[in-house]
Amino acid sequence: MQSASPAPATSAPRWLSTPAAAYTDAALRLRLLGERFHPGRWGWIVPLAVTVLAGVLRLIRLDHPHQLIFDETYYVKDAFTLLQSGVEMNWPEDHNEQFAAGNPQPENTPEYVVHPPLGKWLIALGMAVFGADNGTGWRFSAAVAGTLSVLLTALIAQRLFRSVFLGGIAGLLLAVEGHHLVMSRTGLLDIFLSFFVLAAFGALLLDRADGRRRLAERLAAAAARHGGAPPSSLLRYGPWLGWRPWRLVAGILLGAACGVKLSGLAFMAVFGLMTVLWDMNARRVAGIRHWVRAGVTHDGLYAFVAVVGVGAATYLATWTGWLVTGNGYNRQWHTTHPPQSWWEHLVPGPLRSLGDYHRQSTQFHGGLSSGHDYASNPWTWPFMGRPTSFYYEGYDDGANGCPVDTCSAAITDLANPVIWWAGTLAVLALVFLWLGRRDWRAGAFLGVYAAGQLVWFLWPERTMFFFYTIAYTPFLILALTLCLGALMRFGGPANRRRNTVLVLAFVAVAVAASAFFMPVWTGEMIPYEQWRLRMWMSSWI
Description:
- By secondary structure, this protein is mainly α.
- Helix content is 62%, strand content 4%.
- It has 22 helices and 3 strands.
- It has helices spanning 19-22, 25-33, 42-59, 72-85, 96-100, 118-130, 135-161, 164-176, 178-184, 190-225, 232-237, 245-260, 264-286, 291-317, 320-325, 333-336, 349-367, 417-437, 440-452, 473-488, 493-522, 528-534, and strands spanning 388-396, 406-413, 525-527.
- It has a 3-stranded antiparallel beta sheet with strand order 1-2-3.
- The radius of gyration is 27 Å and the shape is globular.
């Protein structure tokens, strides 16, 4: 028997590549971006289908109830005066019924408000189109923002998980999720914050892919010029990546998020750090030796300008109405408070007034501790311990068509329990996926969760509400979808088929739960016993 000839001593193991092979554009793109994903026509059909469903759920009977509910009493009326005067104005006490009747009579004095104006300007757009005397006008912009959020979630999930199927699941779950549905059908600010945060994340995903393509192209071009491998000098820090338009878009969107609510600052900080970490990892994978330092000098400084600098400019632009009209609250503060230091002389007077306005609002937010029946502690949010009641009316036999002894019509900001509690478990699973498998997607979702949930623990005495969690609700859905996708791929072919059935069964149960809770999300009149049947915890009442 002849023995096999030994392999030449110079041959490399099959899992190693020569520099000439490792630094081609194709090899670099494979390492940095993975296999190309081609969703085809279904990559648009499925996301658009769940978006249509979301639009139907959010737009039907949007004018019900025909009264200002919960904090609409502030933001809708503020939006009206923004249309009329360019700034928020004061209102008489108990003016809601008169406003809803189409006879708004604001006072001629500026109002002190604690939230920036962009969200109220967006509410005003709907009122400009549909009028200020009906709920469709008050809530239309919120419904559009919520519907577009479903489209973005489906597309983001499709790109992240390289699956049209999982993208459709993510979009469907958000489309029928009650917390998101209620906030999309109410003239409050938080749905706009959620939309801008989600859109900024999508822009950063596009920037991540674009930056990695640029890195591959520049390294491959340098390798081609130098005999198949980039020069050692280039591999120390790597190339400059130049113009990053999607990062600038993200900065604009994050500035807009802050222009809705200043809690957007937490997302700006997390996203700014996250995009630099993505760049650092890209340089490491590409073979850059000093990838940490390069991530700071070659990427981090420019990311700061794009995210924070552009975001700050965008935020300032949202105050244009206050700056140009001259009659907003605190607008003339600088005329009675001359500059006290040399640098204050360099700041235009209106900007000094705006700075003092922010000082006042910061003190207000930090000291907000007034009691409220539906206030809740952040510790309870993952368990949905105290959802917020936006509207409740009780009817006796015969009143308003009540067919039984007692009826209820309620709008409760109550999340779909199946989706919400499963999403909370998914967040815990993300910790293991991130630490055990170094899954960058899990790390990204955890970062967003920290920005939307954990940051509120910094002010334990402040009055807070469950609906603040809408800012990260789409990411809770994405985290859940990531775990469902991992379950589908677990085990051999037979197990995968069984697991896919389990995933579909979960989605079916979640949709059925939404159908069950729909009446208490949309203010439908139902028998009182049916309303109580949906209040699973006493703290939900």
